[in-house]
Amino acid sequence: xxxxQREKALALRRAMDREEREKLSSAIxxxxxxxxxxxxxxxxxxxxxxxxxxxxSYVNQALAAQGLRIxxxxxxxxxxxxxxxxxxxxxxxxxxxxxxxxxxxxxxxxEPQDIDLVLVPCVAFDEERNRLGHxxxxxxxxxxxxxxxxxxxxxxxxxxxxxxDCKVYDVKVDIIVxxxxxxx
Length: 184
Description:
By secondary structure, the chain is α/β, with parallel strands linked by helices. It has helices spanning 2-14, 18-33, 57-65, 138-142; strands at residues 43-45, 69-75, 81-86, 92-94, 100-102, 107-110, 117-120, 124-125, 131-132, 150-154, 175-177, 182-183.
């Protein structure tokens, strides 16, 4: 069932053209920046958009300009993920699965317990705050290691499903932000 849901959501997301994705990403970024959960945050684990995901570049730049530490995931072996803050804007390279990630040798590691907010990508989501990723389980293994962080999912409305086929190890998010809504 998960495979079918993943295929359907990816097809809908990929059907959007670049201009529409940029416009909707901008609306999602504005909603994220207005969240009260950002107040008092010092360290955020975000992501660098791959393929046709919600582009959070504007959020990442705005939060960094406010003095927040912005870390990004690095996918390592066997579903293991860690967070790093690049030393400069050029300390990013194509990593596992073709996803942009910090160059470890030119970045500082961040401990999961030091993260206040995690901005999470997805393939699909439902109203129960469940998310479906690409299937490798990186976020489902990493998020439980962030005991004080709020998990904020960024997604397009086309990625919304009636009900996802979730397992006990699938981690729910706290908030879902789309171009049309903030779901808590």
